[in-house]
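Sample 3 of the quickstart, ligand iron/sulfur cluster:
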Amino acid sequence: MPLDQYQRDIDYVRISLTDACNLRCVYCMPENMKFRARHELLSDDELRRLITLLGRIGFRKIRFTGGEPTLRPSLAELVRHAAGTPGIAHVGLTTNGVLLDQLARPLRAAGLSSVNLSLDSLDEARFRRLTRWGNLRDVLAGLAAATAAGLGVKLNAVVSRGINDGEDVIALARLTLERAWQVRFIEQMPFGNNAAFQTRGVVRESDLRTRLAGAFGPLEPVNGGRLEGEARLYRLPGARGTVGFISPVSRPFCADCNRVRLTADGVLRLCLLRDHEVNLLMLLRSGATNSELEACIRQAVHEKPWGHGLAQHLIPASRGMSEIGG
Ligand code: SAM
Ligand code: SF4
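Result:
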């Protein structure tokens, strides 16, 4: 398993399959966002080659993301390749769920284990406002299909001040009373393309916990308050499921970080919130051998930065979230 210079086990890679999206969430990208041309992105062959190498290096978990990964026509093929790659024990997907209704079963059959579904509101009008044109019913159909297909499902909601930090947070948390689901609330992070909006919009975990405790009663910590992945989990009184908080702004989890990201245009991004990157696409297209690629990836992982600099107002400038892969 690759270790970085701080002795963290880095065994998880998030692979973005496209920077394009069929929604335009207000906290993620502008309405007139320009997407990269196809030839600027890793091809399926290049992706397969890198996935095989990542498995050989010691990565154990892959999550496909984007942009919106379900827009990539070869998604199921890539899932099948990843799931069959020696060393890879878990293949997940992060999606807005719009196209999941049709895709859940074939993806499960291809070896997908779990889905993180982004769902910021259960109110049709506010869902549309947040996504600019999304239809909540499509996402709910996707959620039902994912559950029916036997995929593990976690719900992720980015909380935006003044939009979905009231009723929506309560309604989403309420889902965990009846369902054994994990509903996670994410603090909005600032990126160069949208930083002022995102910083104004941040709702801190402590405020959300107070709000949920006011509505449901005291939140009981799960796992003794330890992180599960990047989330701290709690249970509402009498709930079957759990609520989680992913709080990179107010409670950074850099010490426990175990991941790197591969962008759709073939760049290894060592920290979501640092602009330090290593260009694998250039290496691939200049004829690098597998051992050269492997050495480059190992060196990049070794140099993974310790953590982000949001507390020092260091905001990543080179890419937005959808161009990195959340
Ligand atoms: N399109 C897919 C989706 O929405 O799930 C995958 C890509 S999206 C960039 C991955 C995750 O990043 C989503 O849960 C989204 O809500 C979250 N996200 C986008 N912009 C964010 C920001 N500025 N801060 C925190 N999370 C953000
Ligand atoms: Fe698209 Fe996901 Fe960004 Fe929303 S958060 S615009 S669904 S990439």
